[in-house]
Amino acid sequence: MEMVQSLNGINANIKEEQGINKQTWRQKMKAYKKQPLSLFLLTLVTTSAIATIGILLFLIGYILLNGVRNLSFDLFAWEYTTENVSMLPALLNTLYMTGLTLLLAVPVGVFSAIYLVEYAKRGNKLVNIVRITTETLQGIPSIVYGLFGYLMFCIGLNWGYTLLAGAITLAIMVLPVIMRTTEEALLAVPDSYREGSFGLGAGRLRTVFRIVLPSAMPGIIAGVILAIGRIVGETAALIFTAGTVATAATGLFDSTRTLAVHMYCLLNEGLYMEQAYATAVVLLFMVLGINALSSYVAKRFIK
Amino acid sequence: MKAKQSERIMHAIFFISACVSVLAVALICFFIFVNGVPAIFEITLSDFLGGTLWKPLEGLFGILPMVVGSVYVTAGGIFFGVPIGILCAIFMARFCPVKLYKILKPAIELLAGVPSIVYGFFGLVVLVPMMRTLFGGSGKGILTASVMLGIMILPTIIGVAESAIRAVPESYYEGALGLGATHERAVFFALLPAAKSGILAGVILGIGRVIGETMAVVMVAGNQPILPNSIFSGVRTLTSNIVLEMGYASGLHKDALIATAVVLFVFILIINLSFSAIKNKERN
């Protein structure tokens, strides 16, 4: 018993010694009194951080509280009618749109990243051009993408508002996201893997598909999930390419309305505020969930 | 022999894929410019860019109010977003306890993922009524849109500025401390100036986002195509002009809208170029 007590005493001593360089709250305040500018800067920085987090919490909390209250089973009915603006067709369309877009964008994005990292030789001019164009693509506003899709597919190819036109437009839009993340993932694979594979007699193609791609997979998947988040949240690029018809698509050349566009239409009509709240909460948490999943995958597997 | 052939075929496929993004940019430029530029000449450049009246039914296509609207709203968004964003980045990089950082960082990354239509909805149901009770009027206008956009660019600015501050060598900070500066002074007067160009790159990236933003602005800016006379008056931006009227426009009206996109596109290209110029300068 005494032993334990004396041990505790020693521990307490150690703790005090460790704290020798630490200031107490009061000491800190005293120091700040002599340095009003520092105190001011500290307040400024802390306030900004609190404001940012406050806005974030308020935005999510507000939409969550008001949205969940307005959720009902009727909003997930199979049919969209003017009395019951069901979001299920829009949800299904979002699913189709995402699937189709990824089908187009992922192979092209991954393959071009493979070309840039594994095949292109040093000083290859194409690499620089591609880098500039992907940066340009990333900066183009979504409404310009929408207008381009409208002019090229709906008017130029005479498709009208179709699922396919929307998907191709979105595929071009998310291409830089997939390319960049894949490139980073490929660059992170150690060269010794490639050398080992070459040394065992494998060709370049086999090395890429059997050795490099599998080890880069988590990074690529994280990028793809990030792209899904952008597709689900996109509105402006879709209004004039995929249109706003509120029924579930049955073919590639049907006009469709994804959940984000559905939300825009509800707000535009102005008659369905409660349903808009409910749609907002579904949309917000879908996108936030997808993005959280992406960063989880990236952190979990890349380390 | 067969293996070599597949090697060659796949090499070609990879090469073609790499060309797709180049092709995409070329196609986008082609379609927007070919459809838009003739309209600019038909209306004449001075009437188009300098005209203050947008009355499609009367054949008046002056987009000056929209250009001014875009510039005002962008400036407003920068005014609200940049100071808070940079200060928050400083907090994240230099003041934040590790435990808090682990929550804060993903939270701010999440904020970047919120779809713009949801921001617009939030603006419509929260900011607009708030502005209406505070300042009267309709509640929709430059100020509301600026606050909205300021919030939207926070994650972009915070992300870029934070990594810029973190990239400054630790010796700068230590040197300042060694000379007797407090933690705050060292951060603000030694680290921050050194991170200047990186932060500027973040601000430019933010400007690009703001100027191209459509759905959120359409909800809260009021959308009147007239020159604004105060920060409470409603404005229409270049992007909202397109999204509002494209659905029913035809003939020269439609071409004029595409020409609006040309102007927007040129703005964006300039911003992108200056962004990469700053990034290159930083790298050297």
Write the layout of secondary structure elements.
The complex is a heterodimer of chains A (303) and B (284).
Chain A: H1 2-18, H2 25-34, H3 36-70, H4 88-119, H5 125-139, H6 142-156, H7 163-187, H8 191-199, H9 204-233, H10 236-239, H11 259-269, H12 273-302
Helix pairs in contact in A: 3-12, 4-7, 4-9, 4-11, 5-7, 6-7, 7-9, 8-9, 9-12, 11-12
Chain B: H1 2-43, H2 45-50, E1 54-55, E2 60-61, H3 64-95, H4 98-113, H5 116-135, H6 142-166, H7 170-178, H8 183-194, H9 196-212, H10 215-220, H11 238-245, H12 251-283
Antiparallel strand pairs in B: 1-2
Structure description:
- The complex is a heterodimer of chains A (303) and B (284).
- The two termini of chain A are 46 Å apart.
- Chain A folds into two domains: 69 residues, no CATH class; 228 residues, MetI-like fold (Orthogonal Bundle).
- The radius of gyration of chain A is 27 Å and the shape is flat.
- Chain A has twelve helices and no strands.
- With 303 residues, chain A is mainly alpha-helical.
- In chain A, 77% of the residues lie in helices and 0% in strands.
- Chain B has twelve helices and two strands.
- With 284 residues, chain B is an all-alpha fold.
- Chain B has a two-stranded antiparallel ribbon with strand order 1-2.
- In chain B, β1 and β2 form a beta hairpin.
- Chain B is 80% helix and 1% strand.
- In chain B, α6 packs antiparallel against α9, α7 packs across α8 and α9 runs antiparallel to α12.
- Chain B has two domains: 49 residues; 220 residues, MetI-like (MetI-like fold).
- The interface between A and B is large, with 86 and 84 residues.
